[in-house]
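Note on ligand handling. Small-molecule inputs were canonicalized before submission; formal charges were left as drawn, and no protonation-state enumeration was performed. Where a ligand contained multiple stereocentres, the stereochemistry in the source SMILES was retained. For zinc ion, this procedure yielded the string shown in the input block below.
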Amino acid sequence: MSDDLAGELLRRLEADRDRAVGFLQDLLQAPSPNPPGDTRAVADLVLAALHAAGLEATVISPHPQMPNVIASFQGERPGRHLVLNGHMDVFPVAAHEWRRDPWGAALDEGRIYGRGACDMKAGLASLLLAFLHLHAMRDRLAGKLTFTAVSDEETFGPWGARYLFEHHRALMLGDCLLSGEPSSPLCVRFGEKSPYWIAITVRAAGGHGAYTHVSASATKIAGRIATALEAVTEIPTHPPDNLMAMFRDAQIAAQIDAGCGAGHAAIIPEVTLNIGRLSGGLKMNVLPSECRIEADIRLPIGTTRTELRSHIERIMADFPDATWEEISPPEDQPSWSDPDGEMMQLLRATANELRGSLPVPVVTLGGTDTRLWRYHGVPAYAYGPSPESMGGADENVLVEDYLHILRTHTLASARYLRQ
Ligand SMILES: [Zn+2]
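Structure output:
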């Protein structure tokens, strides 16, 4: 890209700074917690911004309260197709834990506070504004740019990107996907671990709580199972050598931890286990006849569901009173794109140029919609603000980080569409 175009885009972004901040605040003042996942107010703001720029959008609402918005434009010459993707729903709020109004979008000492500030209304606003600025300069771009704002992401629900991939795949696929999910300005996401969720049910005869000789206790057995399951975290994993070398590099690991939180780098290649729920029993003096465990296991890149399944079968063979089933969708698997891929290089170089620090590639521990593009062979990367307050009370984003992400999205996309 000529310095001309980069310079012009940066000037436009600088002149538009107040609108960018105000637009993010507008998005944060439109509550969209999931559950229940009603994103109509956010979609209205997205549509208004697109319409104000003279752009048409397609709205696909398989669920009446969960619209998905898609808009595209062509550059001056034929070329590649870049897709931008963000989600409009946010985590729910435990309002009593917040010191600020979760839907107030207060700007205080350089931070904007509100549910979704980092996950991911800052990323969504950034991708939409980048799309609008590039649309204004489309006569200097090649190829096609698509913007997608989806619903139903936070619960891995069926009405957002998953629905669009099942029913409108041609609208979603491109040559590359850029997301604004929180990565921290210090890191670019190129892959993610995969949830492998299982439910275990333990049954026993049950009886009077004083008559422990007449029946086993379902809750005690469940406790032993929860402890035995810990063995899955010891399974030897085998990520590709180039990834292992990257995560073992002390400097890279330190930067990942600085961006994503202490300890992040170390568990990228590990299987992890969370006993999310363990429930059973009727009352204190009754021997429990049933207990259910819901376990959230995360698979690293290179480990398959089949491998995990056989380990769990071996563990569960010691517990004949228990049955178990997989409850996460069978297509879920760890996903990753080339950590040296073109969009990765563009994002790193652009961020470095703008801020003087080179982000490092990272694999995220949680799951996002980007996996769906990877499943379809489309390289997918995410660059967004710090995940530090993600999902917690007083979620916030640094205004300077948000504006840096916006500049990086805009210039990296322009560079991709000028190649
Ligand atoms: Zn998210």
